[in-house]
């Protein structure tokens, strides 16, 4: 008796995440998208980037992450006194303040979650680029999906920009090299960890039996 793998058996079907309608999957060109006829949600987009491009962007993201954490994101000077702050220094400052639990939340959302996201992306894409499924593929893909809401670099970036604008009237505030790296990293992570990464499920389906 032949056992069927559910992934292969139903791979031609696609379920709307919003209203549970079932559709037959069609192949899409680069900038095309498929929408649910019942609720209008986007079901699938044409693949915009190849695995190789995604891997290259993930490695760039890893380098930018190092820059964003090593170089100061903001430097403040007043009457000859100069102070610079890195992302880690801001988490540390929160830990010594009155709202210590905030340090753990900040550390998780602006350092730990993005770091794990980048590491998992590099791991999965390095194997996918060689045409293989990475060890622990399913767990890694699911972790990546769960991490997405916890990675809040864009919120952090917005907060820093607001702080710079607010403080600029009173002090000499300069955006540091780390802030530029953080800005580029935020855009890259949104690009890489979006729906494009889901293609790995289809690309490596025959190896996941
Ligand atoms: Zn729908």
Structure described in brief:
The chain crosses the membrane at residues 54-74, 102-128, 149-171, 177-194. The protein contains 8 helices and 7 strands.
How is this structure best described in words?
Keywords: Membrane, Transmembrane, Transmembrane helix. It holds the Pfam family PqiA. This is Paraquat-inducible protein A. The protein has eight helices and seven strands. It has 209 residues and is an alpha+beta fold. Strands 6-5-7 form a three-stranded antiparallel beta sheet. A hairpin with a 6-residue loop joins strand 3 and strand 4.
Secondary-structure map with pairings?
Blueprint: H1 6-9, E1 13-15, E2 22-24, E3 33-35, E4 42-45, H2 51-70, E5 74-78, E6 81-85, H3 87-96, H4 100-129, H5 137-147, H6 153-168, E7 172-175, H7 177-192, H8 199-203
Antiparallel strand pairs: 1-2, 3-4, 5-6, 5-7
Helix pairs in contact: 2-4, 2-7, 3-4, 4-5, 6-7
The site of zinc ion has 8 residues, from loops.
Characteristic key phrases:
54% helix, alpha+beta, 7 strands, 209 residues, two-stranded antiparallel ribbon, disordered N terminus, binds zinc ion
């Amino acid at each position: 008796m032949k056992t069927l793998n559910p992934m292969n058996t139903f791979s031609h079907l696609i379920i709307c995440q919003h209203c549970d309608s079932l559709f037959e999957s069609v192949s899409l060109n680069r900038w095309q998208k498929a929408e649910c006829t019942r609720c209008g949600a986007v079901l699938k987009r044409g693949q915009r980037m190849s695995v190789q491009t995604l891997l290259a962007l993930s490695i760039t993201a890893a380098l930018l992450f190092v820059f964003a954490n090593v170089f100061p994101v903001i430097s403040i000077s007043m009457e000859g006194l100069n102070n610079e702050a890195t992302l880690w220094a801001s988490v540390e400052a929160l830990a010594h303040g009155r709202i210590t639990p905030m340090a753990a939340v900040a550390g998780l959302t602006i350092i730990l979650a993005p770091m794990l996201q980048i590491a998992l992306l590099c791991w999965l894409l390095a194997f996918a680029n060689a045409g293989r499924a990475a060890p622990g593929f399913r767990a890694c893909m699911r972790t990546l999906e769960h991490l997405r809401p916890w990675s809040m670099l864009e919120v952090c970036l917005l907060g820093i920009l607001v702080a710079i604008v607010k403080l600029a009237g009173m002090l000499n505030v300069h955006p540091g090299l780390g802030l530029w790296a953080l800005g580029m990293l935020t855009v890259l992570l949104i690009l890489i960890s979006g729906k494009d990464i889901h293609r790995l499920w289809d690309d490596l389906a025959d190896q996941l039996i």
